[in-house]
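Agenda item 2: coenzyme A complex prediction
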Amino acid sequence: METVLCSARVADIKDIHALLLKAADKGRLLPRSLADLYRHTRDFYVLKEQDGRLIGCCALSVVWEDLAEIRSLYVCEEARRHGSGSLLAKACMKEAQAMGVGRLFTLTYETGFFARLGFRETDKDVLPQKIWADCVHCPKFPNNCDETAMLCLL
Ligand SMILES: CC(C)(COP(=O)(O)OP(=O)(O)OC[C@H]1O[C@@H](n2cnc3c(N)ncnc32)[C@H](O)[C@@H]1OP(=O)(O)O)[C@@H](O)C(=O)NCCC(=O)NCCS
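Presented output:
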C-alpha cells in the first residue's frame, strides 16, 4: 500500500478528529476537541493513502525547555503492522531532535511499540510540566491514570 507522510493541513483536522474519536471510544487515547486540534494543526503529521484517505496521525507537542511529547498517535486498525505507526513516531522524533529538544516522552498503553523506538519507562514525577498543564484536567487524574510514562533521550 502506497502512503504519503506529510505535515497536517487545516483541511485534515476534521479527519484527525474523527480518527481520534474512534481511539477514544476504545479507551486508547483521550479525545481532543476540534478547537484544540485546530490550535495545534502545526503539531501534526498525517499519513494518507494515494486517494487522500487519512490512515494515521501523530503530534509533537513542545512542553518545556528541553522537553516535548509525542501524543495523539493513531493508525486505523486495517492499516496496522505495516510500519505506519513507526513512520509517524519517527517523524516526530526527528523534528524534536532538529529543534534541539533533548527529552521526548509519551503517555501510552503501547509500551512494547515505544520500547522498540528507544523509549524507556519513567516515573510521571519527572514530567511535572505535563502533569500541571494537562493531566490535572484529565478525568483520570490523579489516582486512575493507567497509562505508562515513557521517555527517550534524543
Ligand atoms: C500503536 C500504533 C500507533 C502502532 O501502529 P502500527 O502502524 O501498527 O505500527 P507499526 O506497524 O510501526 O508497528 C506495530 C507492530 O507491527 C510490527 N510490524 C511493523 N512492520 C511490519 C510488517 N511489515 N509486517 C509485520 N509486522 C510489522 C512492528 O514490529 C510492531 O510490532 P509490535 O506489535 O510487537 O509492537 C497502533 O497500534 C494504534 O493506533 N494503537 C491505538 C492507539 C494507541 O495506543 N496509540 C499510542 C498512544 S501514544
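Discussion summary: The longest strand covers residues 54-64.
Owner for follow-up: CH.
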